[in-house]
Specification:
By secondary structure, the protein is α/β, with parallel strands linked by helices. It has 23 helices and 16 strands. The strands form 4 sheets. Strands 9-10-14-13-12-11-15-16 form an 8-stranded mixed sheet. A 4-stranded parallel sheet has the order 2-1-3-4, with helices on both faces. Helix 7 (127-142) runs parallel beside helix 8 (159-168). The longest helix has 17 residues, at 254-270. The protein is globular and about 75 Å long.
């Protein structure tokens, strides 16, 4: 199948605008590359420090300078269900590599926040900035220059993007990502959402709500709805950084353990001493990034990746924009229905054929670049296969490419929607993104008066007082990265969803973020410029008529341009967002972060560093 012309056009545009920064990046990783093992360049005292805690046989391997030493970077903690299984991974990885004469060392841990715990809490204001903190932590672990490759153990929202960004700053090394896998399915996501709305309306108490939540999030493993964490896993597979078909194999199973060991062994093939040297900085290119965007769009993935993918691309010198997302969305069919876009979860998706089926369908339709490098070698068709165990040995078999459940994975000829799940909105308020995959047709266009709230708590209080029984657009300014770290405003959804279910036309506009699991209520998010930068969203007042039109891509307020320009609105002091739960330590990030449309980054594009 010929590659879609629009896909080629977007890719070429990215290549052209990235020429300078990508060239600088590739030159830097080439300069960092050594033909021998990395530790051979350390002094004796340096090496002795690094080997001091090792067993005698490990020291012998390290001293020989003949085999690889692999870094393990882990986001393990036993508070995140998705990351608790990583407790056993280092021993699995070390054993697998030792059998091949190589070594591995636990090079460093990175912080791992759970957005599910911090939703609607002050700690959520650290969440987005934790991504760049994780990137820096990854770099600290790899900075010892002891390593010939790295295994990244991470799953959740900011963690995989942060590890990816950190790894790209050591782009001369081969890198693989090893996931932990999802937990088994609990109660349905629809049932959980219904209980949340009933609680918001006062129909059930905290005991009933906790029972429902605990029946959904009930064991080790990734949460099973298709939010940012599982979008991360999809991205790593479609970019060729996971083993084929491995992203959604359940945690704590023999197959999961075998995949972890096999992922580590891939690094021996990809290392400078191996038969197919392929560092991550060369492996991931503009085509890989475009494939990632298409994967996000076709699966109805998390809106958070309209920020993270831009930052991830930026870390290796590639300039990705929201316009690229928008153009690709126009040609990408929505093939998947997982909550919040449907009732299925990622276990149902995996059972329906999962990523091998999605990749197969997109390749056959010319909607992915096939000629990309992956940890499996050249070509994305290496990913149309499924892992299995036979007598305890890992094997891969070809996927049929056919969905085993067309209610979860459809076809290109009969998709759930002809366009992808994300869209860019633009108008006199600014530019924003919106998740459309979960919106009903009746909720895609709204014109209604604004009601302005400076926090999600203020909206919830107004809802509790019965003041929101009307058509309106909730406007939440000063939620951007420079104001308060751009927290997710997931706490809005039960109230707004309940109002929508009553028949009111409602929508949300904010320079903040929404959860990767959101989508039922039309939400124009990540608005740029943000209020703290003088954006129009900070000038909107109660009663201003706002139009949000997903079909035409419009986001506007019905005010004459000269009136809007001269309107003065009192700027809140936001002093409460400057201290508590460690927010003091992130002041420099609030001051230096760029716009959401540029990735909400605190680091520079290669070639644009300020000395």
């Amino acid at each position: 199948m010929q590659t879609n012309p629009k896909l080629v056009e977007v890719t070429n545009a990215i290549i052209e605008r990235s020429k300078k920064s990508r060239k600088i990046y590739l030159e830097r990783i080439e300069a960092a590359h050594h033909q021998t093992v990395e530790r051979a360049h350390l002094g004796c005292s340096n090496l002795a420090h690094a080997m001091a805690p090792c067993a005698a046989h490990e020291k012998a391997h390290l001293e020989s300078m003949e085999r690889e030493n692999i870094a393990i970077i882990s986001a393990y903690n036993d508070m995140l269900s998705a990351h608790q299984p990583f407790a056993t991974y280092p021993s699995l990885i070390k054993r697998a590599l030792a059998l091949k004469g190589a070594t591995a060392q636990f090079a460093g841990g990175v912080p791992a926040m759970c957005d599910g715990v911090t939703q609607s809490q002050p700690g959520m204001e650290l969440s987005l900035f934790s991504r760049d903190t994780i990137a820096m932590s990854t770099a600290v672990g790899l900075a010892h220059n002891m390593f010939d490759g790295a295994v990244m153990l991470g799953v959740c929202d900011k963690i995989v993007p942060g590890m990816f960004i950190g790894a790209m700053n050591f782009g001369h090394l081969p890198v693989v990502f090893a996931p932990a896998g999802p937990m088994p399915s609990g109660i349905s996501n629809a049932e959980k959402a219904a209980v949340r709305q009933e609680f918001a309306q006062g129909k059930v108490g905290e005991a009933e709500l906790l029972k429902a939540e605990s029946a959904s999030y009930h064991s080790a493993g990734t949460c099973t709805f298709y939010g940012t964490a599982n979008s991360n896993q999809m991205l790593m597979e479609i970019m060729g950084l996971h083993l084929p078909g491995s992203s959604f194999v359940n945690t704590n199973t023999p197959l999961r353990d075998a995949l972890t060991e096999a992922a580590a062994l891939k690094l021996l093939e990809l290392s400078p001493l191996g038969k197919n040297y392929m560092p991550i900085g060369r492996m991931i290119d503009e085509k890989s990034i475009v494939n990632a965007v298409v994967g996000l769009l076709t699966t109805g993935g998390s809106t958070n990746h309209t920020i993270h993918l831009i930052a991830m691309a930026r870390s290796c010198g590639i300039v990705l924009t929201w316009d690229d997302f928008d153009t690709l969305s126009s040609i990408t069919p929505l093939l998947c229905k997982m909550y919040p876009n449907g009732s299925a979860d990622v276990n149902h998706f995996h059972s329906a054929g999962g990523m091998p089926v999605v990749i197969s369908k997109l390749l056959d339709a010319g909607l992915l670049h096939e000629d990309v490098n992956t940890i499996m070698g050249k070509g994305l068709r290496n990913y149309i296969q499924e892992p299995y165990l036979e007598n305890g040995v890992l094997h891969f078999r070809a996927s049929s490419g056919r969905s085993r459940d067309i209610e979860v994975i459809s076809s290109v000829s009969e998709p759930f929607s002809k366009e992808g799940g994300l869209k860019v909105l633009e108008g006199n308020i600014g530019r924003s993104v919106i998740k459309t995959s979960a919106l009903k047709v009746a909720n895609r266009v709204i014109t209604a008066p604004a009601k302005v709230f400076l926090s999600q708590e203020a909206l919830k209080e107004a809802f509790s007082r019965g003041e929101l029984e009307m058509d309106f657009v909730a406007v939440l300014p000063y939620q951007g990265p420079k104001s308060n770290g751009m927290p997710e405003l997931h706490g809005l959804l039960p109230s707004m969803g309940a109002l929508q279910d009553k028949g009111f036309k409602v929508a949300i506009i904010t320079d903040g973020r929404m959860s990767g699991a959101s989508g039922k209520v039309a939400s124009a998010i990540h608005l740029c410029p943000e209020a703290k930068d003088g954006g129009v969203i900070g000038k909107i007042k109660d009663g201003d008529i706002i139009t949000l039109d997903c079909d035409k891509g419009i986001l506007s307020v019905d005010i004459a341009e000269n009136v809007l320009k001269n309107r003065v609105v009192a700027v809140p002091k936001l002093l409460q967002n400057r201290h508590g739960v460690g927010r003091e330590l992130f002041a420099m990030m609030r001051q230096s972060v760029n716009a959401a449309e540029e990735g909400a980054c605190t680091f520079a594009l290669p070639g644009e560093e300020i000395c």
